[in-house]
Q: What sequence folds into this?
């Protein structure tokens, strides 16, 4: 099979733009190569309010960082401004979410709490220190690139389409040589030093996690206490593990009790119990049978008398 040349590479594949990226020579592989990045407007099964300003990227280079993506679009693809980049398999859920005062931090770990004030935020606290200075991705991985607005996302795709058409020289990692941590042996040497984080930093992370966990448990205990102290619509108190905490509201409990008594009286008056309903239906059926038999008897007597009476 003949090797695929640049002239044979299609510009689009299933609505994806095929953007060729030139990978500069590296000490580990001293030869330039071409990597193909696939781009299209994001179209998830369940769209969100951010979907119109998102671009879906496939076959992201394994060494990609957010700085790589920002530099690619800002310096070589029209200058579209990026809000955030979410890589497939990024580290999530390692800490614990806790309400905190507004602080300056990344948008990935900050979101509004439903039902609270607009200024209230949630921060993922108690994260263990990183042991790698940069993450690597699996081959053929994906990423969702969120731009500041929809026009910026449209501009990014338009510039990518133009670069493909004009066969522009797009170099991966251009101008980032000294701005990102190195790979290869230098990365593993750094990892060896980062495997054992500073004791004070680790202790601070553990303390923050336990403090947030204790706050969540306290809030949960208060919520359960309120549930135990309030009767439901039928006048009953919910019993949960841990026993009752605090008396129920007497006025509400008395009102519910009176309502239940009245409801029970109404049920008795209306022959609510099933066996009484069955007995009543049986008596009604018997009355119908007796009435039918009586009608039959009268009809028979009328037949017998037919023709016996003569007019005078």
A:
């Amino acid at each position: 099979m003949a090797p695929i040349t640049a002239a044979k590479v299609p510009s689009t594949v299933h609505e994806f733009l095929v953007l060729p990226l030139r990978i500069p020579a590296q000490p580990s592989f001293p030869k330039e190569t071409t990597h193909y990045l696939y781009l299209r407007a994001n179209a998830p099964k369940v769209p969100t309010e951010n979907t119109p300003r998102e671009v879906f990227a496939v076959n992201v280079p394994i060494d990609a960082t957010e700085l790589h993506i920002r530099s690619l679009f800002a310096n070589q693809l029209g200058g579209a401004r990026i809000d955030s980049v979410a890589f497939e398999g990024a580290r999530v859920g390692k800490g614990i979410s806790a309400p905190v005062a507004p602080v300056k931090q990344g948008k990935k770990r900050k979101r509004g709490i439903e039902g609270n004030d607009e200024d209230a935020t949630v921060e993922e606290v108690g994260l263990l220190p990183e042991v790698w200075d940069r993450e690597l991705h699996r081959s053929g991985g994906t990423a969702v690139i969120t731009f500041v607005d929809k026009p910026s996302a449209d501009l990014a795709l338009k510039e990518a389409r133009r670069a493909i058409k004009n066969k522009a020289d797009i170099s991966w990692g251009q101008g980032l040589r000294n701005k990102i941590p190195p790979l290869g042996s230098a990365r593993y040497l750094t990892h060896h030093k980062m495997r054992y984080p500073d004791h004070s930093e680790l202790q601070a992370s553990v303390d923050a996690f336990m403090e947030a966990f204790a706050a969540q448990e306290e809030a949960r205990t208060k919520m359960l206490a309120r549930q135990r102290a309030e009767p439901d619509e039928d006048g009953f108190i919910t019993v949960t593990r841990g026993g009752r905490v605090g008396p129920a509201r007497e006025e509400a409990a008395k009102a519910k009790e009176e309502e239940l008594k009245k409801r029970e009286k109404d049920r008795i008056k209306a022959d609510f119990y099933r066996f009484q309903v069955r007995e009543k239906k049986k008596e009604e059926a018997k009355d119908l049978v007796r009435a039918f038999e009586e009608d039959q008897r009268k009809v028979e007597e009328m037949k017998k008398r037919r023709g016996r009476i003569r007019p005078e």
About this structure: The chain is about 40% helix and 15% strand. Residues 6-90+135-196 form one domain.
